[in-house]
Amino acid sequence: MDGKNYEFIEHTADICIRVKGADLKALFINTALAMFDIIADKLPVKSPLDSARAEQATRPQTVKIEQEAENLDELFVNWLNELLSLSSAQEIILSDFKITDITTTYLKAEAIGYSSEDYKFNKEIKAATYHELKIEKSDGGWQAEVIFDV
Amino acid sequence: MSEIWQGPLEKIDDYRWRIPKSYKPGMRVDGLIYADEKLLKDIRHDKAAEQVANVAFLPGIVKASMAMPDIHWGYGFCIGGVAATDVEAGGVISPAGVGYDIDCGVRMMRTNLRLEDVQDKIKDLTYALFNDVPAGVGSKGDIRVSAKEEKEILVKGARWAVEKGYGTEDDLECTEENGAMQGADPGAVSARAYERGKAQSGTLGSGNHFLEVQVVDQLYDRDICDALGLDLGQIMVMIHSGSRGLGYQVCDDYTRDMVHCLSKYNINVPDRQLSCAPVNSAEGKAYLGAMKCAANYAWANRQCLMHLTRKAFEKVFGQSWEKLGMFLIYDVAHNIAKIEKHIVDGKEKILCVHRKGATRAFGPGHPAVPERYRRFGQPVIIPGDMGRNSYLLVGTQKAMEETFGSTCHGAGRLKSRSAAIRTINLGTLLKELESKGIIVKASGRGTIVEEAPQVYKDVNDVVDVVHNAGISKRVCRMRPLGVIKG
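Above: the input entities. Below: the structure tokens describing the complete assembly.
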């Protein structure tokens, strides 16, 4: 996995990834991290003289997420799409996630992000999809495969 | 994908292949794929054919679940999919049959310029376009709008842009639906979708979206070319873009809702991404009203992009765009659902026609075709990859009879993005393109590799099939000179 917590699986047009996590919480967080890792890279703060960027970078924004769903698959897809939507609407890239409450049908979380001006964009992800979605309990925890529409 | 799809593909003739409905219990109609032997080999290499079979499960689907020769694996529907449901017989509408990028589409402009006029200036022109037309992931435009104005865009579509001075009445006449679908319901669009749409009108976006300066390199129908004022060596401009974040949010909102409609309306589909609701249900009507808003936003967006393009040409050539003859030939949507009348088994029916990576191709005489084109059929614009060709086609009567007036939308992907990154060197690719006289400017370097010509099917093969099958007719072919990518 090249030091990353996810790997790519072949898909003709879109992006499919496989992610692991020790528990459900870790699985959800790791997938969110993977998604934003695909979308953008943080620009380095070049020097203290680059004060405008340094100042921007010190101002994190926190967003709150609460999702209810009928089942785990739906909760997972809704979680990812809610993060994409918040990131796009508020023009921020989310980089830190804290899930305070999670069951297979409910989650409550906070995510911290920085202005998209601080990032170099690599890829636009339109949405996470249900197509061939797999969420399974594996030996050491949980594993998910999800296709992103790009 | 190393796995080969093993399902049945029965040959009907050289360009038509059937997946019989006996393939999977639950299929209501056959699958029908337009392809030749050569393209069929590629089609078996991913799961697109299985998706054609899955779409045949949709309640109310008539005739067949169809796929055009640029078919490839999507989510829910395949890309290149055409499916029509009978509205009065409980037929459904599915956001997956439209896609996240609602009214992704293409417009093509002519110019009076000739190859010799731009040959020395193509670099300047490409750079000017790159500077003046916002492109790239999350790109934001200079055309920022208030919430009230955004609502206006959702109802008025391209007309909003024309009223702002970004175009003419003539442009609207040459746009599918005149640039705005009637019945758009801004109340059905979520606050989040509005928020996502605010900063993005007048932006190209990323991925496979592009702006190209092209030259006509082959004429197929002299009569139609003459009528359109097109000749060999003439410079054309093509713009490929969609509804940006606003459209993605509308699709996401309604996919979320409609997942629950599957049990509510007792709908059995093999893939949850095919979530749907009867067109006549509250959920179906709300989605259609919101989808039309996103479609109108996309038409306004392409109108703004065309305006920025005209301005960039004016700067480089020191003449007004009118003097440069930069008139719109046509603008088509290739991710959309429409309520249309078609003849099924000898009877006129009201259908919900989904075109997901497929283009409307109405034949001669159809009232929805602008009067100036009615004699020979609706112009159809088929963009290819950045190294080969693009086409102008027209719709045919046969398309009306066979495919609900639909045809292909582009080349269709062949290789995955990760395979492209593994196997293609950016420097080598740019040199190859330059040796063919093609300049590329992109905001993301990765985009060029992921969109390299070799990751696409040859658009010439795709167009051969739709032409030979009779569901559209070749008019002329272009090749790229300057390419702007997101």
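Note for the figure: Chain B touches chain A through 47 residues (CB under 8 Å).
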